[in-house]
Automatic annotation (TrEMBL):
NCBIfam families: dapB_plant. It comes from the Eukaryota. It catalyses: (S)-2,3,4,5-tetrahydrodipicolinate + NADP(+) + H2O = (2S,4S)-4-hydroxy-2,3,4,5-tetrahydrodipicolinate + NADPH + H(+); (S)-2,3,4,5-tetrahydrodipicolinate + NAD(+) + H2O = (2S,4S)-4-hydroxy-2,3,4,5-tetrahydrodipicolinate + NADH + H(+). Transmembrane segments: none annotated. Belongs to the DapB family. This is 4-hydroxy-tetrahydrodipicolinate reductase. Gene3D superfamilies: Dihydrodipicolinate Reductase, domain 2, NAD(P)-binding Rossmann-like Domain. Keywords: Amino-acid biosynthesis, Diaminopimelate biosynthesis, Lysine biosynthesis, NAD, NADP, Oxidoreductase. GO terms for molecular function: 4-hydroxy-tetrahydrodipicolinate reductase; NADPH binding.
Length: 315
């Protein structure tokens, strides 16, 4: 395995022009800061979120580890994938233990990011914990109770959240605060939740599930199974208003509608996202935050994105 550390650390044009405007001493401080940041391994760079996040790592001027765990088919068929001009070698499930030992020795300040699939996230989390590697888990679905229990039992550091977008996390926090401040405020009202995503999304939105938990506390009985998953193009474009270019490229349109018994009062909470960038940038913030907590030997080991936002750690 060869180190592509220097190439991966090359700052983006934007970061370079921003740093050029700073006094020399501050510029030096920025370079030291980037060199002291974590080296980040993104699993899997073959997926939509993994690829967008790996690009955000490079944009942030951090070290992108040029290896990525992926499914067997991609590893064998493709071999490597380019991220902002950096070739990233794909490692299939069979070879991952051997690979991670070498990667750990080459990048001691390693933080992993997981954007894979609901069907593999529990196994991946155990793998990260067994290897004592701090990780950010953006993948939704899977067995969430088991995920949290496994991480707690391992004493490993992790940030786990169904949504990494700062503005959406702020909305989630607001809903949770509203539930705490005004429990039962919607008693007797009805709830309808619709979430629209690209057709390849296999699970119900993890963000919608989290927001429903807050709405439950406000007196609205509703289950995860009640959430309407919109996955047909006609409905996405016609009813939800998704711009056509984002239908398959990746979108997340959520509407939570609360209606009084006689229909005279309607509240609608909505968050619509086109593309992946907002999550990718937030994921990098989470990785930097987690690395800082590891370095400080923080007592708390398990975090969510509300913790990251509350710590003022999102750029
Ligand atoms: N927290 C957040 O803010 C956000 C979370 N998400 C979540 O991220 C997840 C991924 O979404 P998205 O990128 O769109 O999905 P994709 O289907 O585009 O990507 C999933 C990737 O996982 C890879 N994979 C499969 N098996 C493994 C394995 N054993 N180890 C490592 N990688 C594997 C697949 O590779 P292969 O083809 O080889 O199987 C594929 O490249 C979803 O759960 C989604 O809900 C999405 C957006 C934001
Ligand atoms: O798969 C996606 O696209 C998204 N997944 C997350 C979820 O399940 O809530 C976050 C966002 O909705 C995009």
């Amino acid at each position: 395995m060869s180190s592509l550390c220097a190439a991966a650390r090359a700052p983006s044009a934007l970061a370079a022009s921003a740093s050029a405007r700073l006094p020399r001493a501050s510029r030096r401080a920025m370079v030291v800061c980037a060199a002291q940041g974590p080296a980040i391994m993104v699993n899997s760079c073959t997926g939509k979120m993994g690829h967008a996040t790996a690009e955000a790592v490079v944009r942030a001027g951090l070290t992108l580890v040029p290896y990525s765990l992926t499914g067997e088919s991609e590893a064998v068929a493709v071999g490597n994938v380019g991220v902002s001009g950096i070739p990233v070698e794909l490692v299939g499930p069979e070879k991952r233990q051997q690979a991670i030992e070498k990667i750990k020795s080459e990048y001691p300040d390693l933080v992993l990011i997981d954007y894979t699939l609901p069907s593999v996230l529990n196994g991946n989390a155990l793998f990260y914990c067994d290897n004592k590697l701090p990780f950010v888990m953006g993948t939704t679905g899977g067995d969430r109770d088991k995920l949290l229990a496994d991480v707690k039992a391992s004493g490993n550091y992790a940030v786990i959240a169904p949504n990494m977008g700062k503005q959406i996390v702020a909305f989630q926090t607001m809903m949770e605060l509203m539930a705490e401040q005004f429990p039962g405020c919607f008693t007797g009202y009805k709830l309808h939740v619709a979430e629209s995503h690209q057709r390849t999304k296999v699970d119900t939105s993890g963000t919608a599930k989290a927001v429903v938990k807050s709405l439950n506390k406000m007196g609205l009985p509703y289950t995860e199974e009640d959430i309407e998953k919109v996955r047909t193009v006609d409905e996405q474009v016609g009813r939800m208003g998704v711009p056509e270019q984002w239908v398959d490229a990746g979108h997340a349109f959520h509407t939570y509608t609360v209606t009084s018994p006689d229909g005279s009062v309607v509240l609608e909470f909505k968050h619509n996202v086109c593309g992946r960038e907002v999550y990718a940038e937030g994921t990098v913030d989470a990785a930097i935050f987690l690395h800082r907590q590891v370095k400080a030997g923080a007592e708390q080991r398990l975090y969510n994105m509300i913790d990251v936002l509350s710590a003022g750690a999102m750029r």
